[in-house]
Amino acid sequence: MRPSVKQLASATLLVLMMAALVGGILAYAGLYNFAADAPHSRPVASLIDFARQRSIAHYAADIAVPDLSDPARLKKGAGNYDGMCAQCHLSPMARATELSKGLYPAPPNLAKNAIQPGPAFWVIKHGIKASGMPAWGTSVPDEDIWNLVAFLQELPKLSAQRYKELVAQSEGHAHGATGASGPAREERGAHRH
């Protein structure tokens, strides 16, 4: 005798409710280890990775990518990448840093891994919760984020020497900083570190 659809649905609902109850008890008791040096279990890591990838794909789907081929974009992006990103995402000549080794999940090595423009823009602008990736859109104008995206398209192809040249030719870490309550301040000078 085969179970009915109603019986299967009831059994599935019961299993999900039990899983939620057990998860709730573990969370309330503080038994799930959130230490960055203790990786998630394989099922939890897979679920988080899947949800993150689907979220980025969903929110980045309608982003209109501008022309990224202007060499000026590449130079501007190089300076900001070196100042804002290389410590975690590395450069062609860099080995893992103390910071990149200590983050979990580990930040992708963007000097080796290409990233599509739309998703790259979305991630840089909005960040990723509980990953160490900040939402640069709170202080960096979209134009400067697109310069970073342009640079990311070339980064995996760059030699260490070419990377150094582009950074040297750039204005360094410079972008029109924005405040939470005001417009871009490019007219008053670039934000430099």
Task: Provide the fold topology.
Blueprint: H1 5-29, H2 42-60, H3 71-84, H4 86-89, H5 98-102, H6 117-126, H7 142-154, H8 160-169, E1 174-175, E2 191-192
Antiparallel strand pairs: 1-2
Helix pairs in contact: 2-6, 3-7, 3-8, 6-7
Describe the protein in words.
This protein is elongated. α3 packs across α7 (142-154), α3 packs across α8 and α6 crosses α7. It has helices at residues 5-29, 42-60, 71-84, 86-89, 98-102, 117-126, 142-154, 160-169, and strands spanning 174-175, 191-192. Helices cover 52% and strands 2% of the residues. The chain is mostly helical and 193 residues long. Residues 178-193 have low confidence and may be disordered. The longest helix has 25 residues, at 5-29. The protein folds into 2 domains: 1-32; 59-177, Cytochrome c-like domain (Cytochrome Bc1 Complex, Chain D, domain 2, Orthogonal Bundle). It has a two-stranded antiparallel sheet with strand order 1-2.
Count of beta strands = 2
Radius of gyration: 22 Å
* Class based on secondary structure composition and strand pairing: mainly alpha
According to CATH, what is the topology of the largest domain? Cytochrome Bc1 Complex, Chain D, domain 2
Helical amount: 40-55%
CATH top level of the largest domain?
Mainly Alpha
| Main beta-sheet strand count, sense and barrel state | 2 strands, antiparallel
